[in-house]
Amino acid sequence: MLEGTDEHKRSPEEQAVRKKLGTVIDEEVLRQAKVAAAAEGVTLSALLESALKEHLERRPQAASESVVASTRGVMAADLSLLRAIMEEESALDV
Length: 94
What we know:
The protein is elongated, with a radius of gyration of 23 Å. The protein has a domain at about 1-60. The protein has six helices and no strands. By secondary structure, the chain is mostly helical. α2 (about 25-40) crosses α3.
């Protein structure tokens, strides 16, 4: 169940910034979303908002996010190999 996503559970500040959205969606996708929302005990709006937030969180990094910060620890490298690479002259030519 999606916690804190129903309108009555939102603070007045959160309710104030909500916008109505009109869009076109595949009929079968809409039917499945309604069934899923009912099964989870949440509104269709809450289900769609949660799914959209999850999608946006998985997007590639924003331009303002540091590449170094977002990739820190992703690829382990032997320290001696890293030193050798950094000592090469071509590594300093940017």
